Amino acid sequence: GPGQADMYAGLQELGVANGEDLKETLTNCTEPLKAIEQFQTENGVLLPSLQYALPFLDLHGTPRLEFHQSVFDELREKLLERVSAIALEGKVEERYKKLEDLLEKSFSLVKMPSIQPVVMCVMKHLPKVPEKKLKLVMADKDLYKACAVEVKRQIWQDNQALFGDEVSPLLKQYILEKENILFSNDISFLQNFFSPSPKTRRQGEVVQKLTQMIGKNVKLYDMVLQFLRTLFLRTRNVHYCTLRAELLMSLHDLEISEICTVDPCHKFTWCLDACIREKFVDNKRARELQGFLDGVKKGQEQVLGDLSMILCDPFAINTLALSTIRHLQDLVGQDTLPRESPDLLLLLRMLSLGQGAWDMIDSQVFKEPKMEAELITRFLPLLMSFVVDDHTFTVDQKLPSEEKGPIPYPSAIPEAFTKFLQENRIACEIGLYYILHITKQRNKNAFLRLLPALVETFSDLAFSDIFLHLLTGNLTLLSDEFALEEFCTSLFDGFFLTACSRKENVHRHVLRLLLHLHHKVAPAKLESLQKALEPTKQSGEAVKELYNQLSEKLELRKPSPAEVTETPSMELPLPTVPTPASR
């Protein structure tokens, strides 16, 4: 069959007889057996001692093919070892000359399955495989597939489209993995999207595969970065920024200096990586990061585009925002204004650089975004006043009350706060992190006070997946409040349901939350939520699937008819005991 012919492809060019020759000999001869014997003698293994050994193997019923095969396998192993040894010995030019000669001799047999590994091994050890051979490999799907990654790199570096085809499915997989974590059914305030350390994240399959594909090849590294920039521009998906940083740090872990020394972001990313690990920017590292930003020289402003992408990584934003909230609390205690804190100003500078990444790369105008003075003189002091309100309220609760009765928690939101969240991206990001912070403290009063400001935010940030993922996790700490009509109405009707119909992702996050907390929600409220959250014809599979899971759970909760008749209808609401933190 055609497979047979392929198996011996190239032997004739080398003057070695193959099956076709034997067929020809047998067709044109009078004594077939004699002809076969002669063919065996001429083409067998040329060792005098074998002349007597082979008939002995025949007696034992060992087929000649099996014998030749085992000799061949043994020789091939020796040859592979020898090739690997040649690649390491002698002068550089000489060893590569030897390998090139070997490749020249053996390449015509590359289609023979038995010889192919040897040819591939020779190519793998050549830093520059001749162009003609690379073209032949590239043109043949099976050969290309069988190539070592070292050879593929040589092919890829001059074929961006082919490299793109290899990288593209990995990038898709990466984005999908991130989204699966954000939408995971496990909701917890202990374990969330930002829990894994940078080192752990870099062990992920996609980062490892890309690192392997790039090797030490700067050209391929640049191509991957170009893909990431292009995709980030096309989709605005910030996970590409995470991958940009992870890839650089993965090469850093392997000490690939060929690449790290030429990436101008290396030291900045390395320093930021340490902050992300601690989820805090300490003073010493803040100085270091500031040094890098101040050190961008005239004519090299383009590096700001790269730095902004590194700072746009959600893990970086998370670290900067958490640090900002911590700084604000410290300032309240020290009676200091935001504009008097250089550390805080640096955090804001990095936040705006990160948040401005898309615009900068899109416009190709490489300069740091201007910081709005109002952010520092009005918005941050406003947040500090909320912290003060909480302190005051807590202290008031503890004072012996005279006739004045209990002091109510301030419920009005300053109009300026709502406006800032709608119009200023950095203010919005910090405001959202402040809300996550009070939720984590189980501060129900502050949460309900500020929640209405989230309905309309800058480019709908309050309905973004990362925020909702973190919010749903933190809300599990307030799970007892879900029994209260007022709390549920504020949270669901006042916030989530305002966006459910227009934003599929919000619909998914609400269902995730209810799957986790449905047993805490007052039955009447649960029923109306179940109606409100029913999927429409337009809903995607994920929403339908979550809704069905929820319906099944609620079905299981319904008491059987017998139980219903026996319960006396004296269900009084249980008094809720406030948790210490929310007093």
TrEMBL record:
Ranges for region Disordered: 557-583
One GO BP: negative regulation of transcription elongation by RNA polymerase II
Domain of life according to the entry: Eukaryota
Cellular component GO terms held in the UniProt record: NELF complex
UniProt xrefs under InterPro entries: COBRA1
Matching Pfam families: COBRA1 (PF06209)
Protein name: NELFB factor
Gene that this polypeptide is encoded by: Nelfb
